[in-house]
From TrEMBL:
First-level EC class: isomerase
Gene: truB
Residue ranges occupied by any tRNA pseudouridine synthase II TruB subfamily 1 C-terminal domain in the UniProt entry: 239-293
Biological process annotations from GO: mRNA pseudouridine synthesis; tRNA pseudouridine synthesis
Protein name (record): tRNA pseudouridine synthase B
Length: 298
């Protein structure tokens, strides 16, 4: 019999395999760690693989900061074929001859670099009236979706052997790589869909740091727990302030504390013993509690 679930806190960098949902991968890791509370920081479709940071316990309070971070992908496109979903899981809509060259493809990529507009795909988890769009899509209902602004920070042609094209994409959160593939195919005049997708970075984390479910299964429980990163790794990009014990205790009790600092905005807070207690807003010489580690509160 499996022991009672423990209050485990931390971040696991998972290399999600192709063929399962992000939630299924999360639940498997949660079971392997025997954790109570868990969440992930951005869905990868079942056909996609790569970096999927998972948060456990108190780390889930800070998952939004990674969810909003830039992502990096390796995307494989098949030119000449469009599908209902923009990926290999959909039905083929059209097939066209591919006559474009590497030069043709290179010439259109700058049009998709910088701030662009995307229409979210119907086969996505984006909500409309409380229901994800994919539920409407499965019922054959088309919902009007206003375009949304996203930022493609870098778009590089890695391999080009038409109809197969491989792109390296660095983008803001909320970017749909399937839509990017479809839009590039439309501009080229032959259509395209995404056949493979690998997330290689998320925020400051890389795929090389990630662990597979197969490796996790082979480890002892203590070894699995040793792979967890501390919760503050999710907010390492923010400035940090160290407080004495009295001010740290006051902040943990939900009170603001005076602090002479030139910092403004969201700040990581640590005790005198270098223990992370959460986030505070620095404003006009005051630290106002924003998001705190529950186990540190008195």
């Amino acid at each position: 019999m499996k022991p009672p679930r423990q209050p485990i806190d931390g971040v696991l960098l998972l290399n999600k395999p192709v063929g399962i949902t992000s939630n299924a991968a999360l639940q498997k890791a949660k079971w392997l760690l025997n954790a109570k509370k868990a969440g992930h920081t951005g869905t990868l479709d079942p056909f996609a693989d790569g970096l999927l940071p998972l948060c456990f316990g108190e780390a889930t309070k800070f998952s939004a900061y990674l969810l909003e971070a830039d992502k990096h992908y390796r995307a494989v496109l098949q030119l000449g074929v469009t599908t209902t979903t923009g990926d290999p899981e959909g039905e083929v809509l059209s097939t066209r001859e591919v006559t474009v060259s590497r030069a043709d493809i290179s010439a259109v990529l700058p049009r998709f670099t910088g701030e662009i507009e995307q229409i979210p795909p119907m086969h996505s988890a984006l909500k409309h009236q409380g229901r994800p769009l994919y539920e409407y899509a499965r019922a054959g209902i088309e919902i009007d979706r206003p375009p949304r602004k996203v930022t493609i920070r870098a778009l590089e042609l890695i391999e080009c052997d038409p109809p197969r094209v491989v792109l390296d994409v660095q983008c803001s959160a909320g970017t749909y790589i399937r839509t990017l593939a479809q839009d590039i195919g439309a501009v080229l005049g032959c259509g395209a869909h995404l056949t493979a997708l690998t997330r290689t970075t998320a925020g400051g984390f890389t795929l090389g740091q990630a662990h597979t479910l197969t490796v996790l299964e082979a480890l002892e429980a203590s070894q699995r727990h040793a792979l967890l990163l501390p919760a503050d790794c999710l907010v390492a990009h923010l400035p940090a302030i160290q407080l004495d014990d009295a001010d740290a205790a006051a902040l943990c009790q939900g009170r603001s504390v005076p602090h002479l600092t030139e910092l403004q905005g969201l700040t990581r807070i640590y005790t005198a013993a270098h223990v992370f207690i959460g986030l505070a807003d620095a404003d006009a010489g005051q630290l106002l509690p924003r998001r705190l580690i529950a186990t540190q509160q008195a």
